[in-house]
Design goal:
11 helices; ABC transporter permease
Amino acid sequence: MNSNARDTTGSSSTSLWRGEGARSKGPSLRLFSVVERGLVVLLAVATLLFLILPILIVLPMSFSSAESLTFPPPGFSLRWYAVFFSDPAWMIALRNSLIIASISSVLALGMGTVGAYALVRGRFIARWAVEANFMAPLVLPSIILAIALYIAFARTGLLGSLAAVIIAHTLQSVPYVVILTSVAISSLDSRIEDAARTLGASGRIVFSRVVIPNVMPSIAAVGILVFIVSFDEVILSVFLFGSNFTIPKLMFNKLELQIDPTITAVATLLILLTVISLGCVALLTRRSGLLLRRF
């Protein structure tokens, strides 16, 4: 009896001691948690400001009335936008960028979507080698890819042509299409395709009339992303386009030779294009998620 009483008393005193310790440590743990959350928020805000600061500087400078790059701008003016839209060199560069980005995006979507479907649904020998081949342009630095294509196109006579840049941009964009489209195809229930085959549909019909319509929002979103990637590419254009210009290449050339305030207007328009494109991607991605959840 006495021993049981002592054990009970000892265990109760121990539990009380532990409870007091937990209660005594509670405020300090909560204080540490608050401080930790504060540091995380502070780091996130500092990182966001670091990323946004160049944009906050470029945007006002594009409306500056000064003859050179000046911050803060002394006055408001749209002269640099007028210079951009009235300069034939900028318009030719814009036309080249739009042509290259549009054609390379369509080609990359076609090849990348077929490749993604084969990698997700296919079962064949050396599948890893095919996947590595698709991913190679993404793993290699752009300058290595540019040098390799420079040598290849110099031997075939395509160097300096529009076709050379389109091929190069397509090769660079295909990995993005394969990676992102594979996610959408993997999310699609394969039983839908099995049901179509059971009803007599061929593989081509299943792919074109079952798979593609269900993942079309994701394909459209990927198309916008690879369009932006191609439109902003400068290294491949510098190596392969000869004396011709795209928008990024002409911007690079202007910065190298002289400080032209027109660049700030062009940069602002590119920022606007990127923001609108990312908004469209967000809407398409959301629609794609809702569509896939129905199945």
